[in-house]
């Protein structure tokens, strides 16, 4: 990561480019991504952030129930990813919060909004082993494309 104060687009992490307006701007961006690469190549935590995976099962399974839940989740900034999944649950959510108490307040708010949540299970991320942002395109694209 190269940071200079000349207001030139600066690459903070792979795929994220921003203009350095002030050091406060860097801290805000860093809080949003929770980690920035230091000039020395190691990851440096900027602020403590709780990452939580949450399974959600809805009480009803009509199209209107799914749409209501999905629309509400799209409006919650702490929910950074949400997947509709097959199997024993309806959704998997990735949530970031300042701390576990913040996560609990978020869950309490979601439950109070009557979104049709029947059950939810919480999995607190203790350590990130791998979190790739880039897709392994060389493994996903068929070999005969472009030949």
How would you describe what is shown here?
This protein is α+β, with helices and mostly antiparallel strands and 147 residues long. The protein has two domains: 9-45, no CATH class; 50-124, Lrp/AsnC effector binding domain/regulation of amino acid metabolism (RAM) domain (Alpha-Beta Plaits, 2-Layer Sandwich). The chain is built from four helices and eight strands, in the order E-E-H-E-E-E-H-E-E-H-E-H. It has helices at residues 23-33, 63-74, 100-112, 137-140, and strands spanning 9-13, 16-19, 35-37, 43-45, 50-58, 79-84, 91-97, 117-124. The strands form three sheets. It has a four-stranded antiparallel β-sheet with strand order 6-7-5-8, with helices on one face. It has a two-stranded antiparallel ribbon with strand order 1-2. It is globular, with a radius of gyration of 19 Å. Residues 1-42 have low confidence and may be disordered.
Secondary structure topology:
Elements: E1 9-13, E2 16-19, H1 23-33, E3 35-37, E4 43-45, E5 50-58, H2 63-74, E6 79-84, E7 91-97, H3 100-112, E8 117-124, H4 137-140
Antiparallel strand pairs: 1-2, 3-4, 5-7, 5-8, 6-7
